Every structure is written in structure tokens, then in C-alpha cells.
């Protein structure tokens, strides 16, 4: 029965679908407190758009669609049933939105346990917005096919990777200037430095705040150094004042599209930029790097070594360039 269901979905979506492992299925069920008969069909990394976009993953099963995010110590988790959905629309990219979106509207009064994840509510109907998929067309076709097949039911166990996190402090250096936060200001210095380290089509949103002294923005770029043919990078940055108010902490979560198994993990970077004594006109910068795995693979060690090594080299080059540019501007 399960293979027949997946075969039907493959024809609808135009993409091969494979059964997940029992271990992944168990983790999926535990994550959303689902019964044993519910199994994972597919998952996609994306942004949940609310007042501030939240980077995470959407999980699709025969009866449910769920979202989970764990960023900067905050977790967002919810799910609702396909039968709760009144309408699904694919919205093309526009001037106001930097990527296509999937808008999901629930029937009136349905899915209220997921209200905290909704973009808005109109006349008792919750509306959810998902965007920035690695492959919008595949995600859109899969979601639409499962919604259309919502009356079907199946049974089996599948695979969902357990999250792992490994953080390594890679550098600590004095920059020689006190204005290195300009690298995160969205101005000419940031654009110039990013271009010199191989980032094309670099863009950022404005910093937005929903809490005092805490801000968030999104970044997008094409990196020539990500792989032999380059690759897209999307990410979320959050900055907050250090307790002593003499510097900032910037935490970044990045998705890499164009590297081996890039949809299996996210790259986490933490910057601590602290001004030293004013007379020194210097900043101390500490950067930590880590990989968080959403799916397991036997290539993890090799990928971690390559990604962390290349990212460390890029960050050192970035701050060295910024220091020189700031020095010349004096």
C-alpha cells in the first residue's frame, strides 16, 4: 500500500520518492508527537514568513504538514492536517518578496494549535507563508500533490535524521580598527568586501527588531568559491548587544546550495565583535563555526572538514580586507 502511494506521488510530483529508515521515521514521529502509522514522505528547508522570517524545515507526511526550527536558542514547532487546508497558492517572486512563496490558508477555526506560526489570521482563517526553497517548483508540486491526495491513508516507518551540532572556535584576532561592525551594516564596505571574497549578487534585507537590542536580517549571495561551479547561499543573521554593551554578537545560519549534500546540513557562524580601549582604535573579533546536520550521511566527516576549512579561510580574508579598507579610509 505504501509503495502504491509513493508511486502515485512520484507521478504527481515528477520526482523519485524513496522510503526513509525506521530510525528517521521514529525521530519524525517524536518531533511532532505523531502516531506510529504516520511516516515522512519529504522535507524541505525554507523560511517561515511572519513578522520576521524564521529559517527551518517543513516536513510532509500523508496526513500532516509540519514546520520545525531551532535557531539562536529559539524553537518553533507546529503542524496541522492536510484536511485543515482550504487553499494553497504559489506566489511568484516580486519586488516585495525576494523569492517565490507558498501561501497556505486553513478553514475557519482549524489548526489553532499552529496559530503561533501563522503570518496572519483573516476572519478566523490562519494563513501561513513559506518561501526561499532550494527548489521552489519541486516543493510546490510535492505540497500540492499531497494536499490533493489528503483523503488517502497509508502506514509505514521512515527516516528523519537526528540533529547533530559541532561548534569549533577557529580564530581570535585583533583587527586594528574599531569599526568592523560596518561589515554587517549593509553599506558600501560590506558590499565591497563581499565582492572581493568572491560573493556575487550579494544582497541583504534591512535589520529589523522585535525585541530591544536584538535585530535580524536575511542575506543572499552567489559564491564562486562554494564549489567548482559556484553555488547559492541564503542565511539569517541575528545580532544582539553583548552584556557589557561594548560589542555585538552576530549569529548566522546559512544554507549552502551547490555543495555535496548541501540539503543535509546548515552552517552556523557566531561572531563576537568587541571594541577595545578607545585610544587603541581596535576591535577584538572571535569567530566560531559549526555544522548542524538535519540528515545523516557517511560523508559527514569529509564534508565538515571541507566546509569548515573553506569557511574559516573566507572569514579570515573577509576581516583582513575590512581592516585594510577601514585603515585606508582614516
From TrEMBL:
<dbReference type="InterPro" id="IPR011993">
    <property type="entry name" value="PH-like_dom_sf"/>
</dbReference>
<protein>
    <submittedName>
        <fullName>C2 and GRAM domain-containing protein</fullName>
    </submittedName>
</protein>
<keyword id="KW-0812">Transmembrane</keyword>
<dbReference type="Pfam" id="PF02893">
    <property type="entry name" value="GRAM"/>
</dbReference>
<dbReference type="Pfam" id="PF16016">
    <property type="entry name" value="VASt"/>
</dbReference>
<dbReference type="InterPro" id="IPR044511">
    <property type="entry name" value="At1g03370/At5g50170-like"/>
</dbReference>
<dbReference type="InterPro" id="IPR004182">
    <property type="entry name" value="GRAM"/>
</dbReference>
<keyword id="KW-1133">Transmembrane helix</keyword>
<keyword id="KW-0472">Membrane</keyword>
<dbReference type="GO" id="GO:0016020">
    <property type="term" value="C:membrane"/>
</dbReference>
<dbReference type="InterPro" id="IPR031968">
    <property type="entry name" value="VASt"/>
</dbReference>
<feature type="domain" description="VASt">
    <location>
        <begin position="163"/>
        <end position="330"/>
    </location>
</feature>
